[in-house]
Write a structure and sequence with these properties.
There is one protein chain. The protein is mostly helical and 421 residues long. The protein contains 20 helices and five strands. Helix 5 packs parallel to helix 7 and helix 8 runs antiparallel to helix 9. The longest helix is centred in the first third of the chain and has 34 residues. It is elongated. The protein starts with a strand and ends with a helix.
Length: 421
């Protein structure tokens, strides 16, 4: 058993596939109309037929006209020639599952073929596909008894048209081969011999109840019709989607992850570095680079990765947590020591104050006053830290900063507030 379903084509509702929708509706109306009514009538008439003992009474029993048998393709030895059934049988079905399965494949393949051929030619090819399927079925099953019904022959014709229409264009398919299923991207035309081989194999294995030769007839008819139409240039193929250029960032990330799995951490670190240079605001990339580079605490990558994290602009809780955790790790592991620039210390001090990490905020303020006493953001940073302590109820700690504020920002509101405290 082999199935393949295209996944890339989608209906264009600017030019709806109305003929495909109409064919589906007709099939449903026939099944849930005359065919279902016939089944119910036969169930009602069966007791009457059994209770009729005399031949004359049996003849008078209310047996409904055989709608399905009249319009189906007849394979019985004494069957009369009814060429019209080669088309009408394609609108009959034996069960709800039979109907829904055929309608699903009719839609999946039909809308693409309809948009390429146009409504009139598409309808004509669909009916010719049904005729081709019935013709091979009539040859293969003649005299074997039973009736041929179902849209699967005509739908197989659509599948053949689809394969020839797209030829070598690579299409993404979902496929099932016996109990194995997967996705594959392959030239559409390669599916035609696969479908043909599947129908021949199923027929040879003696599958009963399914007209595999009708499927084969539909495939061959549809492929031939589409080949003729394409030679006449009657097919309007949708443009192939433009292939996306490979994203260098994604390539570096994928390579870094693969190298990490292979325990090649030095090469992975280089890939994370390259990815971070392309997207310096990507926190996940910086985190991965930092965590890999910490294997070499004296290396430049460790310092650069830490600096990239410290300079992230978002101030959401997740970013603040990443910056604080990275700061603690960097301060503890960097060799021969942390290399924090004044602007980084000022930024982190303000952010740690907002995150209520006052111990680290104060430590950074002290380091900033020591290493860059003339930094333009020093006064603002110290004032923010002192105010944060005051708002958190740590009045004594805030007052420790008053001498520095009197020197750095004597007219600042926080300075005046602390003087009154």
């Amino acid at each position: 058993m082999f199935y393949a379903i295209p996944l890339e084509s989608r209906p264009s509702w600017r030019n709806p596939p109305w003929v495909t929708v109409l064919l589906i509706l007709v099939n449903m109306l026939v099944f849930w109309g005359p065919q279902r009514a016939e089944d119910k009538a036969q169930q009602r008439a069966a007791p009457t037929h059994v209770q009729s003992s005399a031949p004359k009474q049996r003849e008078q029993a209310q047996v409904p006209p055989p709608f399905t048998a009249r319009w189906a393709q007849d394979h019985n030895p004494d069957a009369q020639s009814k060429p019209w059934t080669w088309v009408t049988s394609a609108f009959l079905h034996g069960s709800t599952g039979h109907l829904l399965g055929n309608m699903l494949f009719l839609f999946l393949f039909g809308f693409s073929v309809e948009l390429a051929l146009g409504r009139g030619l598409y309808l004509g090819f669909y009916l010719l596909g049904a005729v081709g399927a019935s013709a091979l079925a009539a040859w293969a099953y003649a005299g074997q008894g039973g009736y041929g019904i179902g849209a699967s022959g005509a739908v197989s014709a659509l599948m053949g048209m689809y394969a020839v229409m797209y030829r070598l264009r690579r299409i993404r398919f979902f496929y099932q081969l016996f109990f194995y299923f997967n996705y594959v991207t392959a030239p559409a035309l390669i599916l035609l011999p696969a479908w043909i081989a599947n129908e021949l194999l199923q027929h040879i294995l003696g599958g009963k109840g399914i007209a595999y030769m009708a499927h084969l007839g539909g495939l061959l008819t549809g492929a031939l019709l589409m080949a003729v139409a394409m030679r006449w240039r009657r097919v309007h193929l949708p443009e192939a989607p433009a292939e996306k250029e490979p994203d260098p960032f994604e390539q570096h990330v994928a390579a870094a992850r693969r190298l990490a799995v292979e325990m090649k951490f030095e090469q992975a670190c280089a890939r994370w570095c390259a990815a971070a240079q392309l997207r310096p605001e990507d926190a996940d990339t910086l985190r991965a680079w930092f965590n890999t580079a910490r294997l070499w605490p004296a290396g430049e990558d460790f310092h650069h990765a830490a600096r990239g994290i410290f300079r992230l602009k978002p101030q959401d809780p997740a970013t603040l947590e990443l910056q604080h955790a990275s700061y603690k790790t960097y301060l503890d592991q960097a060799k021969p020591g942390a290399r924090l620039r004044p602007e980084d210390m000022a930024r982190l001090a303000r952010r740690f104050t907002r995150a209520k990490q006052f111990a680290d905020a104060e430590r950074l303020c002290q380091a900033l006053m020591k290493t860059a006493p003339g930094h333009p953001e020093l006064a603002e940073t110290v004032s923010l830290c002192a105010n944060g302590l005051l708002q958190a109820g740590r009045r004594d700690q805030a007052l420790d900063w008053l001498p520095h504020l009197l020197r750095l920002a004597p007219d600042d509101m926080v300075t005046r507030t602390l003087q009154k405290a």
